[in-house]
Each structure stands twice: as C-alpha cells, then as structure tokens.
Amino acid sequence: MTESGTTHSTVQAITAALKDKPGALLPILHGIQNALGYIPAESIPDIATALHLSRAEVHGVISFYHYFRDTPPGKQTIHLCRAESCQAMGGKQLEDHVKIRLGIDFHQTTADGKFSLEPVYCLGNCACSPAMQIGKDIYGRVSADTFDSVINDMEESA
Amino acid sequence: MSITIYVPCDSSAVSMGADRVASAITHEAAKRGISIELIRNGSRGMYWLEPLVEVATEKGRIAYGSVQAGDVPGLFDAGFTQGGTHALSLGLTEEIDYFKKQQRLTFARIGKTDPVSLTDYVNNEGYRGLKNALSMPQADIVKAVTDSGLRGRGGAAFPTGIKWNTVLNTPSAQKYIICNADEGDSGTFSDRMVMEGDPFVLIEGMTIAGVAVGATQGYIYLRIEYPHAFDILNTAIANAYQAGYLGDNIQGSGKTFHLEVRQGAGAYVCGEETSLMESLEGKRGLVRFKPPLPAIKGLFGQPTVVNNVISLASVPVILDKGGDYYRDFGMGRSRGTLPVQLAGNIKHPGLVELGFGLTLRELLYDFGGGSASGRPIRAVQVGGPLGAYMPESQFDTPLDYEAFAAIWAVLGHGGIVVFDDTVDMAEMARYSMEFCAIESCGKCTPCRIGSTRGYEVMDDIINGRDLDKNIPLLRDLCDTLLNGSLCALGGMTPYPVLSALNHFPEDFGINAKATAA
Q1: Measuring CA to CA, which residue among B342, B503, B269 is closest to residue B408?
Q2: What residues pair up with B178 in beta bridges, in sequence order?
Q3: Contact B282 A25 (CB under 8 A)
C-alpha cells in the first residue's frame, strides 16, 4: 500500500471507531496524531465528512491547539518548559543551551530529522525545575550536562 | 515474611530516577535471594528527597532519600530491608518535620497506598463518603458540602455547594459533572499528585457530585502534559467499574454514574470552564459569554457542575466526616485546608497541606528552608501565571482568600513560585504579556491585541526607550485588559505585570525614590 493509502485507512479506522462519541473531534485528532505523529492535511476531508463538519471547522480546531501539528515531527520531540518555576531555576540558560546544541529554535526539527523542539508551559514538575519531556518521559533538575548526556544516548541508540 | 518496599510512581519522582531505582531494587533483591514486594506509591510530596524509598517495618515506614540507582547495593549492604542505618536514612517517614507538621485531609492517603489498588483505597477510609451519600437525600449531600465551606480550589474560590445547588435545582434529563484537570497554572502540581497518587479519591468525589445533583455522566478534562496521570486514571476507572463503584447500579443503589477521561491539547485557556466545555464538545476553546452559567446551561447545553480536581477530591472526606469537621480547619471565610505547592528557587520544594491561615513567610522559611541558591528571596508569585508577584514586605500575609484580595494578590490554586535576587522583574512582566499573547483564545480584543501590545511596550521599557510615555501606556493597557477582557486570562494578566512594576520599579528603569517623592 502507498504511504498516503496507509494514512487514509488509518484515519478512516480511527474516525469510524470514535465518531459517535459526544464531542468526538478531539479524541479523533488525538487518535490520528498518536498513530501518525501528526495530523496530515489530507485527513481533514475524511474527518469533516464523518462528523458532518466543514473542512474549515476541522482545520480551525487543529490550528487552535498548540499540541496538534500538521507536519511530521522528528524522531523525538523535546518539550522544554518555559514557565516561571523553571525560569527561577535557570530555565532560560538551559533553553539557550538546548537551542545551540540542537541548532534549532522552538517549533523546528533538526535537519537529520532526529529531534523536534517545542516549548511547553508547565509540566507540573515545578518542584524539580527546570524540566523537560521527551515522549512520555519527564526529566527534572535538567542541567546543560544532563541534557547533553540524554541527547547523546538517544543519538547513539538511534 | 515478605518485605514491603515503596518507590513512588509519581512523575516528578520518576523525573528524578524513581523507575531506575525501582528496577535496581528488584534486581538486587533477586540477586541476593531476598523476597520483597515492591509497591509503586504516590509521592509524599517532599520533592527534594525524591526518589524517596520507604521500607515497612514494625515501627512504621522508614524513609531513605534521595536514592539513586547506584545507591541501591549499598542500601542492601546496610540492611535497609530491615530498616538498617545508611547515610541516606531519614528515619520514620511520618516523623519528618515537613510531613509531620501538615494537616492532610485531601492528601491523607497520597504516598501511603498503591494508587490503583481499590483494596488499599477501601482499607484506608476510601468510599466511606460515597457510602454515606448513597443513603442521604440529594439536598442533604449538597448541604454537607455547603456547610463545609469548601470553595473552588481552581482559583476563583466560588463556594462549591452553591454551584451544586444550582445544578440540583435545574431540571433536566441529562446533567454532567466535569472535573477541570487542565492544571495549566505554572508552579502548581497538586492536581497531578492526586491523579497519580490517589485517583480513587477524585473518582469518589465525582461520583458523590453526580449522585448529589442527579448527573449520570462525568468527564475528567485532563491536560495532555500529564500522560502518566492519564494512564493511572484510566486504570483506576476500569477497576472502579469492575467493582461496581462506577456504572449503572453503583453498589446496588440503583444510581448511575459513568466516567471518562478526555485529553486537552495544550491550550492554557481551556482551564477556563466555558472554554473547557467548548473543547469537550470538540470545538476551538473559545471562551463563552456568561450568563448563562454552566450550572444552568453548560456542556451540550445541559446543567453542568465544573469543579477543580482538589475541590472534588476534598468531597469524600467531607461526606465521610461531616461538613463541620472540614470547616473547623482554616480561618475567616477560607475554610478547610489548602494544598500549597512550593516551587521554583526553594530549598525544600513540595506539597504542604494545611488549614488556611499560615503566613507566606512560615511557608517559605519554616517549610521551604529559604532559596535553593542560598541567595535572598526577592519575590514570590502566588497563584499561577496570572497571580501577583509579592515582595518581602508582604510575606507576613496569611494564606486566606480575603487577605490576599485585600493587597491585590490572589491565592488561586495555591502555587508559590520563588525567585532569588537575580530575577529581573521587568523580564518577568514581559513574559506574562507574552504568555497571554500565546495563550489568548482570541475572542475578545483586549486580550488578543492588548497582550501583544503589552510585550511590545515591555520591550521598549526594557530597552529604556521613552519611559515617560511607555510606563503610563503600560498602565493604560493593563487597565483595558483588567476591565475589558472576557475571562481571567486577559483580565488577570495585569496582576503579575502591575505588581512587578509597583513593587520592583527599579527593574523597569524607574528610580523608586524619585517616584515616591
């Protein structure tokens, strides 16, 4: 099956399974992003048809929420906390280091496709600031050194 | 007899290496042929000691912390499975001063039990509140909550019982209970601790709310940033269904309550209750005009209770021990306890649950131990990103909704973020405006445009351009945001901005003495 064919059938299956829930759109979008890593533009007509919405309405919801993305992410997505507690513990300096180490800014993906960098406004790990999240894993009291060693390990195992 | 060892599954503990410690303990015990039972408990909330490992002994649970995986063989050598002494020994967990001095009502079980074990929950006073509620008339349940003096712990501090009463008295075939678990306020983590450490208390609280107002469907709207809470809640909900604590005939009472967790998608504004309901309905999280109140016309147009996690998690103890019991804690019109979260630049960060009335200074120094950096504490932000920055001169303010309101500050969800004297308050004010611009839902102009103009003006101020014009412009902008915004996001962004300006004018390039003169 072609790649777009796979996408199409994945979107169809997720939409069919969830469309009858009350307020089904967010669960469907989460389902698609969990399966594909992002919400491809070509999935919008399928979702709109299933929920009797216009394509504009579906696009409007996707674009409203920071978490939903319409482009493929890197192999790992790093969510770095920018909020006050992390700032109080050197979060800004860590942010500068991370951007230099990866060579990208927020909302970008490294050229080798390994890492995407996203800001996050609190991970609820404020007692262990500064904090970041990679996939489901949360890291606390992150220093420039611990960041480098986590990233180095991931690059080696990639 | 098998030895019971506790290593928290709390995501902050995990962020400090708790999973690695747990597997090192399992591995080392197997290697030495020692039979152990490893329980992944919630966190006791003493985060500078995480990962905090506990061993059950005849005298009580003995704590070791903070433990890293590399410490584990040494702990076994020291006989820690029998409570042996080691450099990381902290003695009996519940005798640790920070913990012992607390009044834990809502957090009574957290850290003690296996979060997803219904047996543990029931054996530790769980589901006693629901049992009482099921034998009470609906109005009496609401009355107990009203009598307790419980006010919404999400931030607005609206009396919970009054909200419930409105929903109870609004006739409808379908009503809803929503738990607002979109704990987006930076510096707060008590909701997360409840959901990861004692999910059944939230489930029980929501079930009681459903029984009280006649709602048969509940939703927990959980922020996407809490994936561990999502898994734990779903496991606990499945266990509750299986044991007949959720579903069509709860414990044979004939009452129905269904519960589902829904994930948000990274929008701070969805913590605002009307925006949250739009999101649950599958739309952009645009704030709604009020009235109609959600209690009358809420989710899908039906009467809806929207309460914060801590509010709902405080309900079981109220129904178990009575509204009077809960009301006897606290001060003034702030009744019961508040789980305070100490965060940022503080030596002993963590969760402190106490009756209202303690001063900020007691929290920051007696509990918090001063700053983590060892430098003087210059400012604290209380109540999340929309809370005021408070200088040292206000540290004697007691934790009380009215006392905070009197000095133009907010207690909110009880988060306290500490900054030492290296902080630049003009940068923090700029950040507040930037945050508002990033998170604005865009429905009302003061918030949508004002926040962007706000950080542009702050850029000018930080660069020292035209302060004579730009400082009044900033104040004017804040006035528009404060009075013209549709919800608290735009309406309260002036709190951190203006409090920073008023208390720390020197950071804005203003000579404080000249201004005062």
Answers
A1: B503
A2: B219, B306
A3: yes
Q: In a 3-state reduction of DSSP, which class is residue B61?
A: strand
Query: What distance in Å separates the CA atoms of residue B176 and residue A112, rounded to the nearest whole number?
Result: 48
B392: its two tokens: 């040292």
**Residues of B numbered 408-467 whose beta carbons fall under 8 angstroms of chain A's beta carbons: which are they?**
415, 417-420, 423, 428, 431, 435, 438-439, 441
Tens digit of each residue's pLDDT (9 = 90 or more) over B342-377: 999 999 999 999 999 999 999 999 999 999 999 999
Least Cα distance to B384 among B113, B154, B207 occurs for: B154
Whole-number Å distance between alpha carbons of B148 and B212: 15
Q: The pTM is what?
A: 0.97
A116-156 pLDDT per residue, tens: 999 999 999 999 999 999 998 999 999 999 999 999 999 88
| Cβ count within 10 A of residue B387 | 29
Please choose, from the candidates B277, B227, B220, B273, the residue with its C-alpha nearest in 3D space to the C-alpha of residue B246: B220
Distance CA B397, CA B358 (A): 8
Per residue in B149-182, pLDDT (tens digit) is 999 987 788 999 999 999 999 999 999 999 999 9
Cβ-contact B2, B35 below 8 angstroms: yes
- The C-alpha atoms of residue B10 and residue A56 are separated, in whole angstroms, by 40
CA dist list (Å): B241 to A46, B124, B228: 34, 19, 20
Q: Which residues of A touch B183 (CB under 8 A)?
A: 122, 124
Report the residue of chain A nearest B227, measured CA to CA: A136
pLDDT tens-digit series, residues B225-266 = 999 999 999 999 999 999 999 999 999 999 999 999 999 999
Alpha-helical runs (H) found in B243-289: 273-280
Among residues B404, B385, B405, which one has the least CA distance to residue B343? Answer: B385
ipTM above 0.90, yes or no: yes
Cα angle vertex A67, ends A63, A72, to 5°? 85
| Measured CA distances, B93 to B43, B71, B108, B402 (Å) | 12, 19, 14, 35
- In angstroms, the CA A127 to CA A141 distance is 9
